[in-house]
């Protein structure tokens, strides 16, 4: 039991370190002008599958924290949707609702993959592990994209339209364009990398016994 707790804490610290290393190097948040693409959700997803939803939620919170810091200090056009310290487009003050978008989707990224993995693992009776890990990674990534982009639509619809100089009635089409243009490729990458990392980590007996 003590070895299991120690392994859990070591892995939690490792994934937390990876999140911060990615966040504060150019590869963590890719500047796309309008919004930032990211790969930081991947260690959160892997951590969720291996460590469970509670520790996954902690990693998701850290992901949200790095997003808050990144959007505050190196803002792009839509950073007001992720940081209350950035004025909402067309106003002189930020919105506390930005914290909702910044943190809730990222915390859910640390929860959803665990339950997807557990469900698929039971359905397939521990067979097809690669497929199970891949689907868990894809759905974990889509959790982030769908919650973030729909959150922006419902909370900052008017400001989004003004910021991008588009008609109000076309805002959701623009949101869908980002979901399909950025979110789907991100999800595919997350699925592939999650599968590879989980397979490699589970080759370690301590880790395998921990989540079995």
List the helices and strands and how they pair.
Blueprint lengths: L1 H22 L5 E3 L4 E3 L2 H11 L1 H21 L23 H13 L2 H12 L5 H36 L6 H31 L3 H7 L1
Antiparallel strand pairs: 1-2
Q: Write the CATH fold name.
A: Arp2/3 complex 21 kDa subunit ARPC3
Q: How large is the radius of gyration?
A: 18 Å
Q: What structural class results from the helix and strand content?
A: mainly alpha
The end-to-end span amounts to 14 Å
InterPro entries: ECF_trnsprt_substrate-spec
Protein name: ECF transporter S component
Pfam families: ECF_trnsprt (PF12822)
GO molecular function, one term: transmembrane transporter activity
Q: What report would you give on this structure?
A:
By secondary structure, this protein is mostly helical. The chain has one domain (2-209): Arp2/3 complex 21 kDa subunit ARPC3. 72% of the residues lie in helices and 3% in strands. Strands 1-2 form a two-stranded antiparallel ribbon. Strand 1 and strand 2 form a beta hairpin. It starts with a helix and ends with a helix. One of its GO terms (molecular function) is transmembrane transporter activity. The chain crosses the membrane at residues 9-27, 33-51, 58-82, 94-116, 128-156, 176-202.
């Amino acid at each position: 039991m003590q070895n299991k707790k120690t392994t859990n804490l070591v892995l939690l610290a490792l994934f937390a370190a990876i999140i911060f290393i990615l966040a504060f190097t150019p590869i963590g948040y890719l500047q796309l002008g309008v919004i930032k693409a990211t790969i930081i959700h991947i260690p959160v997803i892997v951590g969720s599958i291996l460590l469970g939803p509670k520790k996954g939620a902690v990693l998701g919170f850290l992901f949200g924290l790095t997003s808050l810091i990144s959007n505050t200090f190196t803002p792009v056009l839509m950073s007001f949707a992720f940081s209350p310290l950035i004025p909402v487009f067309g106003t002189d003050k930020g919105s506390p609702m930005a914290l909702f978008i910044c943190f809730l989707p990222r915390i859910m990224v640390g929860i959803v993959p665990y339950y997807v993995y557990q469900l698929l693992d039971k359905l397939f009776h521990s067979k097809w592990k690669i497929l199970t890990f891949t689907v868990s990674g894809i759905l974990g990534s889509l959790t982030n994209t769908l919650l973030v982009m729909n959150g922006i639509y419902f909370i900052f619809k008017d400001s989004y339209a003004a910021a991008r100089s588009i008609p109000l009635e076309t805002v959701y089409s623009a949101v869908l364009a980002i979901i399909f243009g950025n979110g789907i490729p991100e999800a595919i990458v997350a699925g592939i990398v999650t599968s590879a990392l989980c397979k490699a980590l589970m080759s370690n007996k301590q880790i395998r016994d921990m989540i079995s």
